[in-house]
## 1
Amino acid sequence: MTIVTNLGFPRIGARRELKRALESYWHGESDAAQLQATAAELRVRHWKLQREAGVDLPPSNDFSLYDHVLDTAFLFDAIPERYRTLAVCAPLAAYFAMARGLQRPGIDLHALEMTKWFDTNYHYLVPELQAGQRFALRGDKPLAEYREAKALGIETRPVLLGPVSFLRLSKTTDGSDPLDLLGTLLPVYAQLLEALKAEGARWVQLDEPVLVQDLDDAARAAFRQAYARLADGPHPDILLATYFGALDDNLALAASLPVQGLHVDLVRAPEQLDAVLRALPAGRVLSLGLVDGRNIWRNPLDNALILARYARGHRGDDPLWLAPSCSLLHCPVDLALEKKLDAELRGWLAFSRQKLEELRLLADALDGRAGAEAALAPAREAADARRRSSRVHNAAVKARMAALTAADTARATPHARRLPLQTAALRLPAFPTTTIGSFPQTREVREARARNKSGRLSDADYDAFLAVQTEQCVRVQEQIGLDVLVHGEFERNDMVEYFGEQLDGFAFTGNGWVQSYGSRCVKPPVIYGDASRPAPMTVRWSRYAQSLTQRPMKGMLTGPVTMLQWSFVRDDQERAQTCRQIALALRDEVTDLEAAGIAAIQIDEPALREGLPLRNAQRQRYLEWAVEAFRIAASGVADATQIHTHMCYAQFNDIIDSVAALDADVISIETSRSRMELLDAFARFDYPNQVGPGVYDIHSPRVPDRTEMVELLRRASEVLPAEKLWVNPDCGLKTRAWPETRAALEAMVDAAQVLRAELSAA
């Protein structure tokens, strides 16, 4: 019998129950016991849902209160020294301090650095290690959650981040190689596996996604060392899970490791199946990732069944498992909650529960169960209907794409000649100050939006409310002394959703939430057809805000690559083509903003680095079309109009030439958590344009003072010339409260003034 399994389930709950429980706890409105009770309720609900959907072996320990990489660091006592005292007396407080920072009387803790999980929009906390690091088991989370499921009569497979991937995803504070710590880490992994075995676990899943990346000899040796050590002792059977790409030149290594099963991603890399079948030793479990764990389209089940039958024909009696391509963390929970989607579009979609049901259908068809193959017909019919649908294709968009020329992808003159015109137009001092765009989205703002959406607040009254909020935001920025202002974005629900709602070819769900980090959830648009802009999207509020002040007002847009990356993207044409369509729509918005008198326009691209393919050989082509898309959006303006972009939580070393090729006049980046380390790439490259290194970590509730920001700006001035530097927070301020926002921005402006005085005195 074919086994249906799953690599991981969404944690947040179908209605974001975890988000609400976390934020209630952080605000002091509930206690730890209530938070943990909600977490336990979600785990039970999700195990039962998976079993109802037909999963034979669901995972456990895939649940997290914040992030699974942080969980791994905490589990193995990889807790930096600054959190140690707190961890002894208040472990949960220390856990959240590592994630978010903590500022109380007598306590001021910075959060761990945060970055993207491979090429997804999920953010993980980067473990901080050092030479001589010691590891030990702290708590029993994997064991406890395995016992919870077992008490329900559900056998699960505990999930752990594998030891090599854990170390490769970590950073050291002293420049040493994290892999040097493997010998110290492995005994603790072995101790945990032995405890799981004693608890009765039959299988354990060790996630090693770095196996789909380019590995050097040291990393390959680390894999051999790690799994030889883990096999040398009592342990459950090990499923080695790889995903997000093909094993390729790491296949022989993966197949040689002493594990009992191997999971491969056949959605991202179906072409690897033949090689996997040849390489995997007889008797091993082969887990086939056949439905897409990262998108929401119904899967082509006929194609998946062909792959499964092909594998069964080659594997004979060896066990075969069917699974999603990766954890379903990146998908919403249940399509059944979508009551307002039109029937045609809804028929094209599958959320997490539906994907598991698809796997059950595939397994039944593979095993020859009566009626199973006939049950695949609706998927076939839905795919045919989608291909034929007139709403997917727009002849005008295709004609405009065909007319693109090289002149549409470049500014008329280089930055060095544009800069004097922009400086004169904007009248900026040294170390100019600005923000990234959004200001606090208070409960009042969110409630007004909800009341307007439900019809309880008229459009006229809602507009009047937004006008008041915008004017107040402008006045606060003037009082603080910021040089380039923003309108605050009170009309916007999300930086992608807001634009997608106004573009043709986009659709929206009601409950299609996925986790970005911690309690931060997003509801990605669904790009189902050719993208175009029927009308201006941001001009009205930007023009109104500019009318309120003599200071320059910055227009705020989300860039084409980020619109693409943070959406559920159509899979019937190349992503590059979809990205160019979005870029053309944004180009119209940029030129309309310029015509409305907006002299600085920010086109955010935080997802540029995120979209980078995991293999070096595939990266150049992606970077070429990603840069081209940005330039299509940005290049229709005059030289005096200043184009900004923003990127956050990304490493730039290996793409700095492409970042420069964007030719944005100013780029703002996240640097406060890394203490300006990320600027080194810009200095080594001799980045030609201007840079705004973030001096205020907005993802933490702590408020940095002027001294801290001055120190960061001095560090920045040591690696980049003062005339290239702007001063700004790390990211938008929508998640923060007004008191902390104002205090932090006042300190930021004061810090800029200190640097200006030092520059004048030099």
## 2
Amino acid sequence: MPPSKEMKVIIAGGSIAGLSLALMLERNGVDFLVLEAYKDVAPQVGASIGVLPNGLRILDQLDCYEQVIAQSEYPVEKVYFRDSSGKPFWSFEDFNEKVTERHGYPCVFFDRRMLIQILYDKIQQKDKILTSERVVSVTTHSTHVTVSTNTGKTIEGTIVVGADGIHSTVRHQMWENANKMDPTWIDPKEKDALPATYACIFGISKGGPGVEKGTLSSVFNEHFSYLIPSGPADRTYWFLVTNMGKTLHGSEIPQFTKEDEEKLVKEHWDDQITPSLKFSDLYKHKISSVYTPLPEYVYKKWYFQRIMTIGDAAHKFEPLTGQGGNNALETSAALANHLIASLKANASSDLSTAEIISVFEKTQKQREDRTWGLVKQSHHRQRMECMETPFLKFIAKFVLPNIPKSILVDRWVDTYAAAASLNMVPTAERGNTIPYFDQLIRSPAARGKMSYLLYVVFTVLAVVASWLLSGALRTNGTLDLVREAIVNGQVEGLTGDLCRSYTGISSIDKILVILVTIFLPAISSNRHEQPLQLLYFLSSMLPIIAIFTIEGYRKKNKWSLIASPGTWGVMYQLRGIGFIAPLYFAASFFVSRKSSFLLLPGREVPAAKFIMPALILGYMVPTALLFFPFQDPVTRQRIIAAWQPAPVLVSAITYLLANTIGAAKKSNESHPLKKVNDMFHLRTIYQVTGVIAACMHLTVMVGCLVSPGISLKELFIPGDSFAQVETLADGVFIFFQNDFLLFTAASVIWSLANVADIYRSGLSNVHWQSVLGYMLAGLITIGPGATTAALWYWREEVMSQRKFK
């Protein structure tokens, strides 16, 4: 956009927040002036900074990325948690590989002044950066602000942005202006609300320390801890964090002297950092060090009228997680985004105070929840590393060493992917496998009340299923007829005696005898509706069994409630899929409850190529044999008995093939880390199972239309489920009709909820309401099984493509 002569932004503080904002404004043609209290722009004050993916991404947009990487020299390759003796009890040795693969950027450490110098060098109008100019007072007017400095200068601007740290003069001036104009704006308790529980000596050492390059160590102790990142060249950074004994607020928070620092250093002189390195080794080689309290807080109001605070002046972090400087960059980017957008929308006139307030309000609204969450996260981690309670000590000693890395890396999604960036500058293509939220169609959102509604709906469906299936069997006399048939050894449709032994295992044979007794009348009935309905039912189940198997073998579902399709198969074969399916669907939504679940890696199904053969051998062939007109009654019963574990066989055959053929092939691959190419096989599964279910549906529909003896109503709609039945075949027919209808209803709700999940994850613009009509049409034209397969085909495509904007 062209330079805005009407807008002038006065920035108090040449900090990371201040200079990054100045660079952002300059790139967008907005006038600015930076007032820096120090005589040098980048003084050496003994501080280091960790720049993380959320901060590096913004620096990349500002063309600073290459310089940051060059000056930091070593990304964090390995992370260690160490005990009080310096021995590692947990390590993450491929840290850089994982964080870069997922989020596109490494984590690096270097001097804070180095980053400030990089930002300063990128600013073209260096005459607009004034040093030795400390803001003394700020006065806001209806059309502008006036700033006075310690040198006697009076400067007018459109807005003032306070990037002047935790002890911000601009914030105090903002409060004074607010108290005069609107005393209710600032909570009076905030002046003494700032809390500090910990204090820290942070420093830079050179030469002697033997810290491995590219490492970051956290050393756990009771009521104190160390953070030791390696730096560029021969530098080592270190943080000694100690609990001050209680949480102090506001004016209670002390300012420490060098004598205070030396006293604390003596207390920790012999602390082990590693088995071969003591704290004294670091301190003796220090270049600089500072002892300071560590306040941590997010202020309730970041702005008033034409005054805004950013960075530490608005939100202060513990240093442990390194989010202070990175979130300063984020808030600068958010402010720049909203300000530039407002200037573009009002190109023909100056921004009014109301419009400026709207810019500030949007900035705080966008950033406040995220900063609070990260501040609290940092505090909780500091308490853990200081083992502040017996419980935290137990967790640190016995739980943390066994925590899988996957739990940590999955949490990075909220830490990094949810970050703000500049929306008027394109982001670089860095190959991140997890999209940043602003690369999606929309930011992922929690299900909210929808989660509870889904659990309630599926629970109600399961209760109804229990009532219509088990309850009806008892009430209408079907179970009595089953018992009678087993006792007499005679079943409708069977010319011979009922078989009593199939496997030789008494407990299994008893179950198989019951199931054979139930299935025989449905398959052998003289009423054509009964075998036709069962064949249609089992064909409709084929895509669902395929989906259950796919989800069970999907990488991200490992060790979850849906990771064992065979177990679920046993349950729905014994209790009816109309009862078990709602429970499975509820479990699947519990597994995917996090808003970022669909964004996480692990969509791949390594066993995908073996699922279709398993479906053919384990389900399709046994189902075809089930309806083959065997004349021998014993053979017929054994085929029915052999069909019963069909869903379990699908999972077992998949496992067997994947761990024999698949394992053998993998061992012969020259590139074992090659990505799983499963989409061809998954598409084939959805297409084949969907076409089979659709063909059966069309066959049945056409057959009912042309055959005067069979009606759709009699085929699918049960009569009074609790009325006394005359024959076992009638009772079984009602059971399968109810089972199918309940299964279909649960599948439709599950499918629609999955569409809603993809929408809320920001991967699609397709809303569940718009799909409802297509699903209803699909149920009529191609049937429930094929409709579910088609929707899952679409879902798989959306998850696999994930094209980021």
## 3
Amino acid sequence: MATTLEKVDVITVGVGWAGGIIGAECAKAGLKVLGLERGKERSTKDYSLVHDEFRYAIRYDLMQDLSKETITFRNSRKMRALPMRQMGSFLLAEGLGGSGTHWNGHTWRFLPYDFEIKSMTDKKYGKDKLSSDYLIQDWGVTYDELEPYFDKFEKTAGISGENKNPFAGKRSSEFPTPPMKRTPILKKFEKAASKLGYSPFMLPSANLSESYENPDGESIMACQYCGFCERFGCEYGAKTSPEITVIPTARKTGNYDVRFYANVVEVLKKGNKVTGVRYIDTQTGEEFIQPAEVVVLTSYMMNNAKLLMVSGIGEMYDPDTGKGMLGKNYAYQVLPGATGFFDEQMNVFMGAGSLGMSIDDFNGDNFDHGDLDFIHGASLSITQTGVRPIATNPLPPDTPVWGEDFKKSSIYNYTRTLNIGGQGASLPHKENFLSLDPNYKDAYGVPLLQLTYNFTEQDKNLHKYLTEKTAVIMKEMGAKTVMAGNPITNYDIVPYQTTHNTGGTIMGASPDNSVVNTQLQHWDAENLFVLGAGNFPHNGGYNPTGTVGALAYRAAEGIVKYSKAGGSLV
């Protein structure tokens, strides 16, 4: 028997960047906000022993327990989906801060082209550039409309960067803090890219170049370049995360609280509104009903979609008919790139999650696609994130995979190997989608989310073209041996690739082509908001967090307006 608790104004399901921003902005506006987090509380003081590669990078201490909940995966509808038994292609976080704790800190704004990709592509290349199997569409909001919210997120996070990307959308202000250090490795890339006629610039970073106080009065420290960012928390408080910014801001209002070990298993709906959520205390097994005036789904994009599905809110996508929006437009990324082996030693073991340099010459529609068999592209970057010894074993071609020569080559190349990588935009396809698995359930009796996904011809063509570009840059950098990435074939759930999953709860200007409107309000339940990278109608050539942050501030504005007005679409 579930225990019904006292009603609150706003619930967020998940307390990462999205939940933290909603919590802070709504609490500052006087609303009583409760964050439900199924993981535990954590903060900077908990990471004093964070430089434990085995604990965090290999055993995934900050991640979700897949023995309790995972996803199932298949390449096509003809296959049987099987559970992901260990952390694979992407990393599912758990605990206060969510993925905002273990991220590298790359903080991009999606390009103006991304938000109007359908109309811009049709206008320039014609409506038949891609087949109708690709489900590209405009977002219903433009870059210029989102720019103030990008600006607000960057100032909250203190993002370090330089306004030297000629392809970026216009900015209303400069980056809050200067770019990170231009190391010898980055200068090598900068010189080569410039010589080839490209426009390199420092990667926008949430590892701050200097100490900073944000507009809410929260302090963020300067990065120490220790090389332990991705999969780790930051013991210096120098990698901007929700725990040191928006969550403290929310708590200071007196209108905000977080309830830990609270796993939401259902959103409760009556008529055209939701009434609250049902959750299970993962420590005691007790079941609770938490009523609320407004419910905001702010957990990882896959869990947002799953909660809507198991709650029966919205029409599930049917790939045979094309009807239904929930689960539609799932997209991932492809990773073109090249590895270079050098004679000189470099300090590759030092760095930071977002210490890098990029070019956007081959991103979005920044280059002509008229004679190419794909659209969009990738940001191409060299990053100096800190090469750690357990997970790093660079080997040139034709090196034995065991024995004396293997060991000798591994040791020699550890500090003599560089990589240029791209984040290629994977576009939605009618056969790539999210659904509920008919066979497998989680530890709480709820069906697992099922992922049906495979790389498309668009993905393969983009990957091949841009891999060749990275190999040319690496050769210009002076590598004695250049090893271009292998062509992609079928997607596999292992090994790790990127946590940049998008789609499933897409946004748009009409309920005919989206799950939520442009302020992330659900079309079928006016007091339900769904927020995360799942709102993206397609994936881009960047990390999604900066764009999620912008959407969160826009959604918060809508939630406050809705609450103050006493209800209605915003």
## 4
Amino acid sequence: MIRALLSSTALATALLAAPALADDQKAPEADVAGATGANGVAELVVTATRTVQPIEKVGAAVTVLTQPAIEASQAISVTELLAQTPSVTFARNGGVGTATSLYIRGAESHHTVVLIDGVKLNDPSSIQGGFNSGNLLVGDISRIEVLRGAQSTLWGSQAVGGVVNIVTAEPTTPFTSSLSAEAGARKTGYLRGAVGGASDKVTWRVAGGYYTTDGFSAHKTGKEADGYQNAGASGRLRVKLTDAVSVETRAVYSRGKNDFDGFNTDSPEFGRTKELVIYQGLNAALLDGRWNNRVGFAYTDTDRENYNPARAAVPMTFDAAGKNKRWEYQGVFAITETWTATFGAESERSRMRTRSPSVANPNVAFRTGKTSADSLYGQLQAEIAPGLTVTGGLRYEDHDAYGAHTLGQVGAAWALNDNATVLRAGYSQGFRAPGLYELFSEYGNPALSPEEFDSWEAGVEQRFLEGKVRASATVFHREADNEIRFFSCSFGATDTICAPGGVFRFGYYRNLQKTKAQGLELIAEARPVEGLTITGNYTYTEAELAAGANTGKQLSRRPKDLANLSATYRWPVGLSTTVAVRYVGKTYNNEANTVAVSDYATVDLRASYPISETLEVYGRVENALDKDYQTILNYGTPGRGAFLGLRARF
């Protein structure tokens, strides 16, 4: 109640102070799928305010990966691409396609919202309702915004650690096409193609890709290679009905098959995953552009099946499906030239089913669950003094099982000295209802309570030497209460929660503890001489348990130290070469911190050369020093591998 009152008071004060309306102000676009200039301009961001904004007006830490940066990285998986940004690390039980957890600022993987073209990708049937980024390949992506820190006011209860907004490419010329192909180590191949065009009335694009690799053993000491194949397609269509009204549809589909190993042993097991994302929307600009509106429907469908051929009689070991339906309205109104209101309503319906057939019970019934939540949100952004932009917002969420909650968020950005100096600060609250898997799966617990969060951050960005050097520092702090964790049952336990109905289970989800995370992000970029660019980031994170027997212990698989450093030189002949180093500090495989996973550093080498205006050849050597390392204890990681590719645009 106190949290809601403080937040309501902050926003109400700002609203009452708003000046009179202006007559000629245009509202920012009500867009969450991308920003104008996405192909190379990093000064405009969308995710922080759900509208297109100059980055110097944003009070939160944001990293933007534009299309040139994405192509230059030569990354195949979005996970590896995100890991090059500050405060982002991951853990994966094998190669590309296996289960992957993405951590931002030490938060749990399911505390990060992942969007593609504005649609949330969380899977209600997955563990704790998060998104497994293992199947997410770079594909036709043109832009990624990584918003760090709690963002529940605008993006819902799951956005505690941050938001990753992925935008697929949108054509800007009457006709455009592209094709790329690469091959390399471990019999890896990746083929991608796209075609599209834009006219005064219609903008369209379709793209597809296929990736295959023989891989390596998911188990650290295994001998059998675990491969992965993925076929994907995406498309978008926008039709301009009038100068002020347009309709659009977007879709992304992928189908993957990954081999994986059982616990502590080689295994012939494999999994299949199908993911479908659909968005349909209507955009309308009213009052001569002062009031922009978007009405949309989003749908996600994730189907997963695991098989073990060694169990000939009952090969299927897991079967799950999760679906989300989301209706939403968003409006952006220009109150004056310097005051903008963003507001909206959302209604989400989620359902899941999951089962684990066994030899003893091959026809085990599905465990099912469904939930709904309705939300209203509002945000006011105002430039209250030259260069000083203040943002305040509220979210009211009514969950069918956990009732109504009100959250608040405030932030400020102060751009000084012609934007050479930018000061940022923000405070936000978070609330996350338990996921369907936590409530209704074979490990579920219907008695769970919601998780609650408070977080703040403050930072400064400084440009030197006429923009040739840029540096920033951000401190952050987050506290969590009632955080949900998996609790292991003692073998043979007979209590009603470890053995419901007299049937023993290995564990269940419960509100175990409080946690806290605090740290420092340092980012720098320099262009000391023409053609040379040096970039680096370092993050120090204390992500710890704050209650219970393990108070003060580091959260599992969260490193305290994390760093990236790269140097790129573009030679006079057009050749571009890059050396990139990534360092991940020591982690622990358990919360008692008795089982450690060693720190490691990897070195990647990359090069590209434009043969002509439309053709480019590129290549890379991943893990050039052939470092032997782990992200999860006893699970394998790729050794040295060389890859060569060709990219064409027409």
